[in-house]
Design a protein that fits this description.
Largest sheet: 6 strands, parallel
CATH architecture: 3-Layer(aba) Sandwich
Shape: globular
Number of strands: 9
Number of helices: 8
Radius of gyration: 17 Å
Strand content: 15-25%
Distance between the termini: 17 Å
Structural class: alpha/beta
CATH class: Alpha Beta
Helix content: 25-40%
Strand order of the largest sheet: 1-9-8-5-2-3
Order of helices and strands: EHEHHEEHHEEEHEHEH
CATH topology: Rossmann fold
Amino acid sequence: MITVFDNLDTLYKKAADTFVELSEKAIQKHDKFVVALSGGSSPKAIFNLLATEEYSQKINWGKIYFFWVDERWVSLNDEKSNAKMTFEALFDKVPVNKDHIFPMYKDGVEPENYAKEYEQEIKNILGEEGIFDFILLGMGEDGHTASLFPGEAILDEKEKWVDAYYLKPQEMFRITLTAPIINKAENILVVAFGESKKHALNEVLNGEYNPKLYPLQLIERKEGFQFFTDEKAKG
């Protein structure tokens, strides 16, 4: 389902409401809420909202398990770290269980090896089925989501849930959930807006199926899938 918002404040509020609603349903169903979060400016705005008293008091933080969708392979105190941003915007302000937080980085480990460890961490919480209750995604101007970038071999991954690779254009390693594990999720919310996303968004939603060029097309639009955007992007 695609929802087009008139302004970003309304979009962020609806995203925060969605998080609250899904957390209540999951905790009622199986006594935990397991999520994978994205980095970037729009998730940060959502996290800031969730940290406010209005929202934080509605959430049973101790029963939420937090993973990440993807990460730059940088230390947790690096300004480029998605985890650092999430701690500053959300975790440091609400009563989360720190043992339920699984950053996509570990000192002294090669990223490819940590991808295997991270997959096991997911299995420890979700079992062999690996069904997240909620995954929050964004979309880049090139149509990428998570660290699934156009033309990269990881787009063909069918077995691994987590993988890491060297992204030459950025000259750095990235670690990411793969399309197979993302598509297993009970609920997926993609947030992408602004004039700069208009071309890619149109191709993803209305163009020919070409995920090598527009990787967000790998994510299945099924029940539980939502896409929040604005007039500038949707056109």
